Predict the 3D structure of the following.
Amino acid sequence: MSDASQPTPPYTQPGQPGQPAYPTAPYGSGAPAPHPSGGTLGRTALIIAAIGLALSVIISLISPLFYISPGRFVLADVIGAVQGFLVLVVSGVALVLGVIAIRRQAMPVLGGIAVGVAAAGIVGVLTGALTTLIIQLMLR
């Protein structure tokens, strides 16, 4: 015999006393697997672009030390060329990954930031190489 004066718990549905208001999954089915997000590609592109930027800044801060004593200009030129090549490659990879991340539209902001940082790195390397080439041609 049911007593209508007793309040029903807040988690029950009308007409189904004692039953939860939310659907239950069978025992052992577990939660659905999370879908991998495309944000990892944008994040990876941003990290690679930041590595290229850090490499460029560190070498730029250290390079004046090679010009202190005479005879080290060749070493400074070699280190500058290697640094430029590495930054160009790393920035190129970050640029490509950033564009792919933007096109997937999972987290386009990180991809966009990576594209901006990588493009600035590429422009910086190409500007430095062009400036060096012009100076070398003028000194001949």
